[in-house]
Amino acid sequence: MEPRISLCMIVRNEEAFLDRCLESVRGLVHEIIVADTGSTDFSKEIAARHKAKILDFPWQNDFSMARNFALDAASGEWILVLDADEEVPKESREAIRTAVSKSDTDGVELIVRSSMPETDILKFEDTRIVRLFRNRKEFRYVMPIHEQIRPSIEKNGGDISRSDIVVLHYGYSQGIVQGKGSRGQRNLPLLNEAVAARPKDPYLHYQIGATLMSQGRRDEAYAELKTVLSLKHADMGPAILDKLYMKLSQLALEKNENEEAIRYARKSIEYGAGNGISMYVVAIALLSLNRISEGYEQLLKIKEKKDTNLRLDLQLDHLLKACKELLKI
Known about the structure:
CATH topology of the largest domain: Spore Coat Polysaccharide Biosynthesis Protein SpsA, Chain A
Number of strands: 10
Low-confidence stretches: none
Order of helices and strands: EHEHEHEEHEEHEHEEHHHHHHHH
């Protein structure tokens, strides 16, 4: 028999997205567990239409507690975790079925593909994260904000595999959470509280830096992200290290610290070879240093990439034309 999958969610005032999310897993999951942390809209009614098991959970400023509350109610052999502003595209449904039927691992790393605002340099941003895992009581989320399941799986000897299964995420394109306030306004107090309890945790400092950067507090973000480098950050994993150095490279470039920008960007590329932003930072920094030939070669590499998710076609063409004129080619 096909292993049973329990979808576990935490929800609050997500009527704008929830129906699309739940419709995307119809026939894929065998039960839906919704931990509702205080909805005042029609979220519960939408969940009920999809035959979800709805459990009230008073919000305690701790995402892990809410996640684990939902996990405790799950009966399936596997857990799938989604947020209300996400959906499973049709092409990923069969891949998830295959993963739980044939996988001999305990957790599966999915790609959460976040659509970015039209004003962003990126069309989308991919984040690899464990969202599919076996239902074992030892596997529970940790950290009150930017919660993770990976540490408990690894602590208990579980194996985690990578996959190319994509989950679509729309929340970043709207910039708000639960219909109110910004994501940064919600997350920063929780992050500060968490880092006060764990001051040497590089991941928490990274998340604070990333949040400050998203709020336009660039100098504070730069200082916070540099703090990560002074901590034991090497075990954060290649995906986070890629983003850490990418953000450092962007902030260094803004300060005209071009050599530093190149160094950070190339470290980012070591961890994520397809990071188009870091490749672009290298190109712009080289041009700023009047290393025109090297900058031109870097721009060509970006232009030749077929899978780039940058909104830079026009800029690249202008820069390449200018370089050709300077190099007389």
